[in-house]
């Protein structure tokens, strides 16, 4: 026997029982962003490898260890996108969307790919909803991004389970000076560092700050801090952001060790974290990347954004019991047919009803079956009414209309009267213009 085929580790099917929650999340987010004036952009999943190597940075875990990279048939090195920012910057540049200082407020959603060790909340194919804003240098837009995520948490009912962490990484010069000071401090204590941090000391020393190793963390207690190296402009920018968050009533914690794992950030960085999901508790993360567009060959263009992990948000909704009931839409009407002629007539009648009633969710029984089995299916579907069409009904051009969720006898309704009768008994259904 041949081996049963399986999905790739860390790449999940999202089954019909879960897709209503996904759609609810995506819809809530899209509606919210519409209200703030953000526009959707759809980007390819594959890009030239160089885009990520240059954008996210050699020496980061994502680029060095986690990318799905391969040569295509033309020997070009391509990579499945591990995140959305680099591709978005490439797209706005390529299409001139930020030329002449044009402001762009964009959002996207879709799968991202990272070869990480799968565990709860961490997958190899995962989904992000992300936002990127271009050509707005001030802290007002950083504040807007955070304020709108806070509104999303309230809309989803998870506001009490998430907390905001904030930091400023300063200018690249300030970061370079800080990096030197940190490296000097840690080099003197090299033997006490964990192995991973020893390696990072040359490749990406700032990442040592968020090491999970207790001894390394203890060493860092007396290390120089980034805040001491902030340049005056970045300090003022950070103060501006904090003042706006204070005014908007958004609580935050300053985390001087928050540095993020991607190289493009400068100034603002933030993460929304929860303690409800175990180790993978960051549900949304982002920051400012004013140097990225010029790094890709464009004119200097400020940029700021964030991305949230959809799987983690779905887990959070489930953990908190915040998935709204009745997301999966049951039909309002289930049509049972008996006999071949009735089945044919029911197909036409169902289409006419769909045409004349907007919002109607009508399921026509498929696969025939006995009276009992069709009624069982009608009941299981959650429909409010069964429509019954057999030889007798067909001859009289009527249907039997039977309530399934409340007491009540079956009534006979003429085909011509059906739209009006259904509109009367179903709140969310309207008669379309053509049939008025
Ligand atoms: P990131 O922190 O790498 O940032 O990812 C953002 C979010 O994606 C994380 O906070 C997490 O919720 C989710 N995430 C990341 N990796 C995984 C994974 N393996 N499994 C499940 N969820 C995951 C970025 O990607 C930046 N592009 C965000 C950004 C946009 N910054 C500015 N603009």
TrEMBL record:
The keyword Nucleotide-binding applies. Its main location: cytoplasm. Its EC number is 6.1.1.21. It is found in: Cytoplasm. Gene3D superfamilies: Anticodon-binding domain (3.40.50.800), Bira Bifunctional Protein, Domain 2 (3.30.930.10). It is an enzyme of class 6 (ligase). GO terms for molecular function: histidine-tRNA ligase activity. Residues 1-331 form the Aminoacyl-transfer RNA synthetases class-II family profile domain. It comes from the Bacteria. Homodimer. Belongs to the class-II aminoacyl-tRNA synthetase family. This is Histidine--tRNA ligase. It comes from Stutzerimonas tarimensis.
């Amino acid at each position: 026997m041949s081996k049963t085929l399986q999905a790739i580790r860390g790449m999940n099917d999202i089954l019909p029982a879960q897709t209503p929650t996904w759609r609810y999340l995506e819809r809530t987010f899209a509606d919210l962003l519409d209200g703030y004036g953000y526009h959707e952009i759809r980007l390819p999943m594959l890009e030239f490898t160089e885009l990520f190597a240059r954008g996210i940075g050699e020496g980061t875990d994502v680029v060095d260890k986690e990318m799905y990279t391969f040569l295509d048939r033309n020997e070009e090195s391509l990579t499945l996108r591990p995140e959305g920012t680099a591709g978005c910057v490439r797209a706005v540049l390529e299409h001139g969307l930020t030329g002449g200082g044009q402001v762009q407020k964009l959002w996207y959603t879709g799968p991202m790919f990272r070869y990480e060790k799968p565990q709860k909340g961490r997958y190899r194919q995962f989904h992000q909803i992300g936002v990127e804003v271009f050509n707005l240098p001030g802290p007002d837009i950083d504040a807007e991004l955070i304020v709108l995520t806070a509104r999303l948490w309230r809309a989803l009912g998870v506001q009490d389970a998430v907390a905001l962490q904030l930091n400023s990484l300063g200018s690249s010069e300030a970061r370079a000076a800080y990096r030197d000071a940190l490296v000097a401090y840690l080099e003197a204590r090299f033997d006490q560092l964990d192995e991973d941090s020893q390696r990072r000391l040359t490749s990406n020393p700032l990442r040592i700050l968020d090491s999970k190793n207790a001894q390394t963390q203890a060493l860092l207690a007396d290390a120089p801090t980034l805040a001491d190296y902030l340049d005056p402009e970045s300090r003022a920018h950070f103060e501006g952001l904090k003042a706006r968050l204070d005014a908007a009533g958004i609580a935050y914690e300053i985390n001087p060790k928050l540095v993020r794992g991607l190289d493009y950030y400068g100034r603002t960085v933030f993460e929304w974290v929860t303690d409800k999901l175990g180790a993978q508790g960051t549900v949304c993360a982002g920051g400012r990347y004013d140097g990225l567009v010029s790094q890709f060959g464009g004119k200097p263009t400020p940029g700021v954004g964030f991305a949230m992990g959809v799987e983690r948000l779905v887990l959070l909704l489930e953990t908190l019991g915040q998935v709204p009931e009745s997301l999966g839409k049951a039909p309002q009407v289930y049509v049972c047919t008996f006999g071949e002629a009735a089945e044919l007539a029911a197909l036409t009648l169902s289409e006419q009803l769909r045409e004349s009633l907007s919002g109607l969710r009508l399921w026509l029984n498929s696969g025939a079956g006995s009276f009992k089995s069709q009624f069982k299916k009608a009941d299981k579907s959650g429909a409010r009414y069964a429509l019954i069409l057999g030889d007798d009904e067909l001859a009289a051009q009527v249907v039997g209309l039977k309530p399934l969720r409340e007491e009540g006898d079956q009534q006979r309704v003429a085909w011509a009267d059906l739209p009006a009768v259904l509109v009367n008994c179903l709140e969310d259904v309207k008669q379309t213009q053509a049939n008025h």
